[in-house]
Structure formats: structure tokens, C-alpha cells
Write a structure and sequence with these properties.
By secondary structure, the protein is mostly beta strands. 4% of the residues lie in helices and 23% in strands. It has two helices and 17 strands.
Length: 282
């Protein structure tokens, strides 16, 4: 998908860069495949703000996406490529011969009228959008929508332009290189979709104006060093100063240097190479 720059008739358009939307359908989303989700505005079950700077935003419907691809051996046809307000990737509406309709993440180079299918056994065709177990794919295949656990549904490589790479399959496990550079073992029966996620130019767009962030539900952010000492540990000082302390939240929680990843022993044991390039110790 190409990107578009505007002739700056207004101050906003001077900095605006957006995706070209000619290939996207302008029809309403499938009513049966949408639900309304409550916007929590950063609040927990007690109504207290636990995540600051959230709120407002445009009204939107959540599209129900088929991450399991469990309609096996029945070919479907892409009838439309649609926009999804909840994610960076676009959606492909699949229509099956029995009239069933489902949304999937639109693969790169997907076209209206293209056939897609979910297989349990490879038939020799490895087309973009085909879904099958990792054990049925040849090495070096680029995949997306990868399952972390068999049957749970896709959890890996779902953002716009992302893809993982199958390295090898042996002894019941598949070695997969994730978008972060991490190489991990997955069960060979985990399913994945061939190709990369579409809308690769999403990362090249610019917001253009503060109002577009408000449409996305993001409220203004004030720096701690710009506050008074009563409001933030990093506030105050004569003139512009950072105060000399470590970056932290208004309640003293350090912002840098503290590991935040939970220790998941069963998951960590299957990592071969970390995202920083270091091999895991046995």
C-alpha cells in the first residue's frame, strides 16, 4: 500500500503522511462479525485510573477475527479488503461456499477474488494466505498469525508488515525466528499462515496533528520535569532542569533498568536465541 503526502493547504497537511486507501472497501463491516466494546478510559473495575492519559476517542466497532482458521479443507474467496480501527493491519473478508463469512488478517499482496484455504495436510501449493501446521511447510517459509500453543489461536506476528520465518522442523518441534529476532521452539502442530501481514507502509505514516491522537483515545502527556515538586519527584528547580534524579513515575516507580518480563519457566525453556542475539544457557 502506497503512502500519500499532501500539498500543505493547511498547517496540519504540512506534516501529514497517510496510507493510500484506494484498495480498501468503503462498505459497512459485516454486522454479524462486529461487537461493541466498552472503552475503559484507563480505569479498573473500581473506576480508578490505573493507566493515565487514556480517554475520549472515536466510536468504533470491534471486528471478530478468525485467529484459529478451523474451517479445514474448504476453500474460501476474499470478497473485500477492509480497514480495522482496532489494529494496524487490514482485514480480508472471506466468503465460503456454504455462505459462512469470516475475517482474517489481510496478507501482503492479497487481492479481492483470491482463494485461501486452511489445510491439515499440505497439497504442494504454498500460496499466500494458506493456513497449515508448521510441520507441513518447507524451511525458510515466511509466515504470520503463528500459534504459540496448538489450538489456542494465533498470537505471534499479527501487526502490519510483520512476519516470522520457519527455520527447521525436527523431533516434534519447529524452530521459528520471530520478528524481534528471537529464535524459539514451537510445537510442530502449531498452525501459521503463509506470507507476511499486509499494510507494511503503516509505520511510515505520521499523525500530522494533535487532534488525530485524540481520535485514537490518547490524551495529552505532561513531562514530569515541567511539573511542580508537589506534583512529581522530577519537578521543580530554577530554570529548565531535570533535577538530577532517575526517571520515575509520580509515585516513585523507576522507569528504566528494572526487568518487567515475568519469569515463565515453561516458555523461556524453549527460547534458543534471545532477541539481543545471546544464546540461552542450557
Amino acid at each position: 500500500m502506497a503512502i500519500v503526502q499532501h500539498r500543505p493547504i493547511t498547517p496540519t497537511q504540512r506534516f501529514l503522511i497517510r496510507n493510500k486507501v484506494e484498495e480498501l472497501s468503503t462498505k459497512r463491516p459485516e454486522r454479524r462479525l462486529t461487537i461493541s466494546k466498552h472503552n475503559k478510559k484507563g480505569r479498573n473495575a473500581y473506576g480508578r485510573i490505573t493507566s493515565r492519559r487514556r480517554g475520549g476517542g472515536h466510536r468504533r466497532l470491534y471486528r471478530i477475527i478468525d485467529f484459529r482458521r478451523d474451517k479445514y479443507d474448504i476453500p474460501g474467496k476474499i470478497s473485500a479488503i477492509e480497514y480495522d480501527p482496532y489494529r494496524s493491519a487490514n482485514l480480508a473478508l472471506i466468503v465460503y461456499p456454504d455462505g459462512d463469512k469470516r475475517y482474517i488478517l489481510a496478507p501482503e499482496k492479497a487481492k479481492v477474488g483470491q482463494k485461501v484455504i486452511s489445510l491439515n495436510k499440505a497439497t504442494g501449493d504454498f500460496e499466500i494466505g494458506y493456513n497449515m501446521p508448521l510441520s507441513e511447510m518447507p524451511p525458510a517459509t515466511l509466515v504470520h498469525n503463528v500459534e504459540l500453543h496448538p489450538g489456542r489461536g494465533a498470537q505471534i506476528a499479527r501487526a502490519a508488515g510483520q512476519s516470522a520465518q520457519l527455520i527447521n522442523v525436527e523431533k516434534g518441534y519447529a524452530q521459528v525466528k520471530l520478528p524481534s529476532g528471537e529464535i524459539r521452539l514451537l510445537n510442530e502442530t502449531c498452525r501459521a499462515t503463509i506470507g507476511a501481514v499486509g499494510n507494511r507502509t503503516h509505520q511510515n505514516r505520521t499523525i500530522g496533528k494533535a487532534g488525530r491522537n485524540r481520535w485514537l483515545g490518547r490524551r495529552p502527556r505532561v513531562r514530569g520535569v515541567a511539573m511542580n515538586p508537589v506534583d512529581h519527584p522530577m519537578g521543580g528547580g530554577e530554570g529548565r532542569t531535570s533535577g538530577g534524579g532517575h526517571p520515575q513515575s509520580p509515585w516513585g516507580q523507576l522507569a528504566k533498568g528494572k526487568p518487567t518480563r515475568a519469569k515463565k519457566l515453561a516458555s523461556n525453556a524453549r527460547i534458543l536465541v534471545r532477541r539481543n542475539g545471546r544464546k540461552m544457557k542450557k
